[in-house]
């Protein structure tokens, strides 16, 4: 039995904290990584900022449309194994990813926090109505009222929804095992969530590159897909 599998089986209440590395195997590039996507017209951090949405909505729209939306992407083995553990009420998932793939994998939604939102939820900033992804991909303007559409993701300079923060903090404070997967853990406030774990909570990270962990943390450096292939649910 793999080390990760042993830890998962020994745990009563698991919290997975997931990032872009979980979705690269589904063909979604990590815009923060060296091999991730690049775009003309500014840094991803600017193009995905509230400031850009307000002052240069066309640039923001083009970046989101061309780089952030992947309707063809399918969940991979990591999403699937995690989803099965949520259906057993054994795990919660707190994700930085906005691609909706944890939901698509059949997660028990009660056990999922999409910390930065979901890019498939689109609404009009003027009238508040929701519109389909197809409508958004056709135009950045709401066809009914002319307002500018936006996705429900949390942009740079925007606050995380309080209810999501509370749900994440509650899950982490009750966990006896935290599993960090596919994130270099540099994005705040996401990375600061682990401070709410109790002192005897075990922690393990699975990532392509080693990341900085608290003293009780265990690092598994390697391909998360290979690790989760060995997980028995
Ligand atoms: Zn509207």
Automatic annotation (TrEMBL):
UniProt-annotated catalytic positions: 116 (proton acceptor)
UniProt keyword annotations, A-Z: Metal-binding, NAD, Transferase, Zinc
The organism's place on the tree of life at top rank: Bacteria
Domain Deacetylase sirtuin-type: 1-233
Binding site for Zn(2+): 124, 127, 142, 145
Enzyme Commission numbers on file: 2.3.1.286
Entry GO MF terms: histone deacetylase activity, NAD-dependent; metal ion binding; NAD+ binding
SUPFAM superfamilies cross-referenced by the UniProt entry: DHS-like NAD/FAD-binding domain (SSF52467)
Coiled-coil annotated spans: none
Record keyword Acetylation present: no
Pfam annotation, one family: SIR2
PANTHER family per UniProt: NAD-DEPENDENT PROTEIN DEACYLASE, NAD-DEPENDENT PROTEIN DEACYLASE SIRTUIN-5, MITOCHONDRIAL-RELATED
NCBIfam families registered for this protein in UniProt: PRK00481.1-1
Name of the featured protein: protein acetyllysine N-acetyltransferase
Source organism of the structure: Tetragenococcus muriaticus 3MR10-3
